[in-house]
């Protein structure tokens, strides 16, 4: 397997986003004790532990869109450009960054519209 080099130039990050929609629903839940093994991410805050979990659960479902570009952690502007484009369409977005990719969580009912916004942004990138 070949590992791509991280991209840090904004126009290259935008052009290479290649957003992919995960068809599962995801939920943000406060957990007590050990987070479930199927958690996508675990965030520890002073107020408690939040896990992002798949499957049918209580609360509002979110869709996960992964930007498949390997954006550099020190790259500037990708988060701002993506969140601004989605905000312009009135779509809420929660971003979780991993080492290789950024993952956007948008309201489930707006997932297809959010994907289209990101695809247009990448094309214009």
In short:
By secondary structure, the protein is of the alpha+beta class. It has a domain at 10-24 and 60-124: VC0802-like (2-Layer Sandwich). The chain contains three helices and six strands, in the order αββββαββα.
Per CATH, what is the topology of the domain at 10-24 and 60-124? VC0802-like
* Second rung of CATH, namely the architecture of the domain at 10-24 and 60-124: 2-Layer Sandwich
Number of helices: 3
Q: Could you say which overall geometry the principal axes of the C-alpha atoms support?
A: globular
Radius of gyration, whole Å: 15 Å
* Relative strand content: 25-35%
User: How do the strands of the widest beta sheet line up side by side?
Assistant: 2-3-1-4-6-5
Level of helix content? 10-25%
CATH class of the domain at 10-24 and 60-124: Alpha Beta
What is the element string, with H for helices and E for strands?
Answer: HEEEEHEEH
How many strand units? 6
Query: What are the segments in which pLDDT stays under 50 over at least 5 consecutive residues?
Result: none
Q: How would you name the oligomeric state of the polypeptide chains in this document?
A: single chain
For the biggest sheet, the summary is: 6 strands, antiparallel
Terminal Cα separation, in Å?
A: 27 Å
- Category by helix and strand content: alpha+beta
Average per-residue pLDDT, rounded, comes to 93
